[in-house]
Write a structure and sequence with these properties.
The complex is a heterodimer. Chain A is α+β, with helices and mostly antiparallel strands. Helices cover 41% and strands 13% of the residues of chain A. Chain B has a three-stranded antiparallel beta sheet with strand order 1-2-3. In chain B, helix 6 crosses helix 10 and helix 12 packs across helix 19. The longest helix of chain B is centred in the first third of the chain and has 22 residues. The chains are: A alpha+beta, B mainly alpha.
Chain lengths: 650, 424
Amino acid sequence: MSAPAPTEPAEPLGSLQPTTTFSTADLARVEALVDDSGIVALLEPLLPTGGRPRELPLRTLLVGIALTAAANTALYLKRVHEVLLALPTPARRRLGVTRVLRRDGASEFRSVTLRQVELAYSALASLVDGSEHFARHLPEQERAVREQRCELVVQLLLNASLPGDWSSPGHVAVDATFIDANSQPEHTLRRRQIAAAAARAVEEGRARDLPSLLADDNELAKALGVPNFGEDPDIDSIALKRVRRSNRRPADPDAATIVSKGRLRHAYAAHLAVSIPSEDHVAARLAHSDDARAARETGRPVRVPAPEPEPHFILGMKLTASTASPAATCVELTERMAAAADPTGAGLAPEHAATLAHLPAAARTTPPGDTLADRGYSDADIENFHVPMRSLGRRLVFDLHKSHRGLTGAHRGALVAFGNLYSPGLADYPDLLDNKGPSPFAPWDEWLHYFADAQLREQFRLHRNGRPDADGYTRLACPALRRGATLACPVRNTLDLVGSRGLLEVFAPPAAPRPDVCTKRSITVPADVTARSMDLEWGSRAWYDSYVRRRPRVEGINGILKNPAFAALAPMTVRVRGRAKVGLFIAFAAAIANLRATDRWRAQLQRVRELNAAIGAVKRSRAPRRAATLDKLLPARHRHGNGPAPARAP
Amino acid sequence: MGAADAAARAVALPEDADTATGVADYAPELAAYAAAVAASLPATIASRLTAWQPQLVQRNIPPAQWRRFEPLVRAAATCAAPSSEPVAGEMLSVALGLTAFAATRRMPLRADVVFRATTVEAWMRTLSAGTRHPYGSMANALVAGVTAALSGAPAPAPAARAEGEPQDRTDPDPAEPLLLDAPAPAPEALARLALTGTAAVEALAALALVRARVLEMEPAALRAEPRTRGRGKAIPYGDVEVVALLAAAAAQRVAKRRIHAAAAICLGVGAGVVGTDAASVRATDVLEVVTAAGAAVAVRAGARVVPVHAAFVPGLRRAAAAAGADGFLVGGRGDRLKRIGAVYTGVAASDPSLPRLNSARLQSTWVAMQATRGVPFADLLAASGWSSTEPLDTLLPLLPRTAAGAAALAGLTGLAPVSGSVAR
């Protein structure tokens, strides 16, 4: 007698009610993501072996994490377990979530337990966890290997989430977004200093009422002589006072406590590199929208086709503590994106590393192009950001911090301002050296003011003679030299250009002995002087179109990731601890965001192609040259073109 | 489009509410000088200078910005000492336009920077061709006034004429002595123009006769340009005007421009060769000829050869020497029209109070001069290149009647000639 065919139990999932279900197509897509990334092939051989066979395959665990991220729910292991159990039965059985056991001639369905998910995840995380806190028992070299492995996994995952028929134009915008850690805020260093100082004061008998002193950090800092003590975000906050008095270590030491938007947060910083369109693309889009507006106003058809949309993809991601240097992180991220995924240093066996090299996801790189970064990055020391980024072939377009705007120094007679070198004649125009910047959400009129300033200031900028040499030295020439002059100066005998070409004038050139910039045809300037210089003048219209119109794409991605309607990184949804575990979840959330961005991009692409086909199909006819024909001058009833005039109503 | 409007339209400046500044903040010297000039001006002009208000809305200038500009604008216009009430208004408008232009270029609002020749030149580029000339003239007058104020020159003495006497001569009294707006040329200026000795005497004497006739027929003809505008385009220049125009030509900033301008005037008044004909004359067209009166200089203009009045030969010789082997006497860039136009606008821009340099007036001056000397009309027509006598219509009333002519007419009728050859 053969055993009865296994049947589906009435309620195989028990009382578990799935909050999200996925179609077979969604599941297939997530499985393809995991398979294309090659992570399973990368990590499976590294998992511990020799004991009892693992109940939950690594691939299934990764699929479960991806599905959890796709469900936009809280990112914690219990949810991974729930999502796996909520899959359709064939899928569960295929993935190994549910197994059929034959016991005493009867079939029994057994699903993976939460404990098994936790164990598998711990095993996975330990392979990629090089944290100085959670993996502190490991030697430093091993931790470095695991860090490399973690970065490799994230890069492979993101590369696999990009569509195969899309190639990056090389332009990226980089920004960090804070991800709240699953932990309370901790004492900041400053507050620990205060606590220590207060303790000493009590010991020395200078203060006896410690709790009352601790109630106001500012007063205490003043009394104890702690230097540079800043303002509390909210000095009346009870929660803050509690935190201040606490001496607990945070539950997630990989994250760091910061003051953000007026409150204390214990958070990670996820640095994202997002694809952005080229400057030409922006110009084409503006031309199309201008033409569309004109067409609406005049009632004519649109003539200028729209450029094909550029998708919002996350090309790279790196998770750090919120207090880590953004500039150094950006350099590391860029370095990794510029090169193909390199398993060297990730502790892989040579045969596995060779397998990885054949994966399309591993071969995908970001070609040289623009990197757009805000002041959080560009305010760094030049050797931490500007110089290494340029050495990686990146063209930097960035915002300037207030301390780098206006006049900041001089070099061989030239003025250093706004990161650039200018003619000393700029000192005659103090309004052009103002270090004010546009206000947040500045209206267009305010921007026009900055455009005009930048346009005038650019005339004073020293002219670059060729590219920097191998040592980074650049030849810069006075802008008042007659050939290609953009400035009129009595020293160079070009004052006549004020009237003939409308150039600005140097009113008071430097007195004798004149500096090099006034006497030599060009001066050689080292890289450290020109490091904060951009080819676009800060505040100019070109800079606006390049920076202000393109960089916010990365803010859009931040918003998408943190909006529970679109992605899984809403505040306080990450329920695991440690940089590796949190990083894995965030990488999957980013990869899922890329998959969804691909869908949106394809839909937009279709719409734009249809629109352009419609624009191309419209008969091209020029505007009539004869605007005042006799027919138009005649009263309506006498016009020939209108046919007989209608009879008037009585 | 107004001057201030054009400048302010470029970019609206941020509106600083409380940035009203006194003149002393722009230039302390300007305040004292402007006060002294204001004291010397008639009360109507002075009150116009203080009461004038711009049309801020039309000019797109925020009120706070006008409050910033106001002291500087009023002081600069006062330093220029406008001659009449309307001129004062125009001067203020131009000063505001220039100041707004300087502000859009983010120049420091200092008198020496804003009211500067180079700033005016740059501003001119932004104006339309129609407004460039009148505004440029006034802007140059402003620059001259401010420069005088800042150079420490003594301020003009308070009104020399009787208190309350109007300077505005828009409606002149026929009995009022005629005064030219152009200052009388100093002997040094005449010498610099090579108008010395007999040449100067002859030229001035010949032209003085023309001037006398002109004054008799058209008292307003030799007045400042705004008053003669439209009353006859071909009114001959007076003697002082010709000399003043030559002085203005000599005051051009570029050496070549000085030579070209003097050549154009000498060709026009000395030989009746004007306009594009004058621009076509090359150094090789200046000929040494022998006439019945002796050796002379003639100029070839197209198919005709015209003897040059001896008073204007030095100017032509100098231009011919500067032009080189085969260069144009009125040289420069561009075609003939542009070259002669550059001369006319250059002379006009150097001194706005001068009458405009005009081809028709130059040629009328020559014709009147020759007709006064008794050159027959037929010869005059041939030498002038005119194909009809129509251009003479405006000149005929200005020409003197001679005793010989009267005798000839009397011979025809049998009457005795009337005594007093120039009686009307």
